Amino acid sequence: MFQSGFLGYQTTFMLDFVVCALALVVPLLLYSLWLVKVRRNYLGHKRLQIALGLILLVAVTAFEVDVQLVHGGWENIVARQPLDEVQLAAKISGVRPWLLVHLLFAVTTPVLWIITITLALRRFGKNPRPGAHSRLHATLGWASTLDITLTSITGLLFYYVAFMR
Ligand code: HEM
Predict the structure, then answer these.
(1) How would you label 123-137 residue by residue, b for 16+ Cβ within 10 Å and e otherwise?
(2) What CA–CA distance (Å, rounded) separates 28 from 9?
(3) Helices (H) and strands (E) in the chain — how many of each?
(4) Distance in angstroms (rounded) separating the CA atoms of residues 118 and 137
(5) How many CB atoms are closer than 10 A to CB 3?
């Protein structure tokens, strides 16, 4: 079951799963920002951000274990496509720059999210309200939002060029 994808391309279950998670995270994040900015529902925003952070952490860790340890690297997943040796080498070197751009955002996002969530939990306390931590949280929060959005967009672009095109 975990050997093949479910979106109709020659991929793996975990690759398709993480692509769905990346596509879902942006609308959920927008909802969380609407909760905090429009509804002033600070507790709802807190809970949703923690849930999103945990889901992303579990999904990405399971995905990395699957790609690296089970399949021996993303190149082996691309190699499932019906390509001869020359075509495969061309495809791999053609899509690698897309992956590198994606990794730039994918590596910095968890670091920023962990800092944003840890500081928010410590400084806003049990009953989060605007206060002394608001200024720094706004900077970290928007940076985290931008980073995960770019992780999502570049991840989906990589999936497109590597597996759909
Ligand atoms: C990675 C996780 C998080 C992100 C990306 C995020 C993002 C944001 C953003 C963009 C804002 C709006 C800032 C503005 O006014 O321009 C905000 C506000 C706020 N967030 Fe978060 N947040 C996160 C986690 C948390 C957590 C865990 C808590 C509570 C412990 C929290 C509590 C708040 C509060 C109280 C505000 C309102 C601040 C104010 O209006 O002064 N956030 N957040």
Answers:
(1) ebeeebeeeebeeeb
(2) 26
(3) 5, 0
(4) 11
(5) 9
Which amino acids bring their CB within 6 angstroms of ligand 1?
Answer: 33, 36-37, 42, 45-46, 49-50, 53, 113, 116-117, 120-121, 124, 128-130, 134, 137-138, 141-142, 144-145
Residue nearest to atom 41 of ligand 1 (CA): 130
Residue 86 phi, psi dihedral angles, 5° rounding: -70, -45
- Listed in sequence order, the residues at least 6 apart from 74 whose beta carbon sits closer than 8 Å to its beta carbon are 67, 99, 162
CA 137/CA 143 separation, integer angstroms: 10
**Ligand 1: distance of its center to the CA of 160 in Å?**
32
Mean pLDDT by 10 residues, the chain (165 residues): 85 95 96 98 98 95 94 96 96 98 97 98 96 98 98 97 95
Angle between helices 42-64 and 85-124 (to 10 degrees): 150
130 C-alpha vs ligand 1 centroid, how far in Å? 9
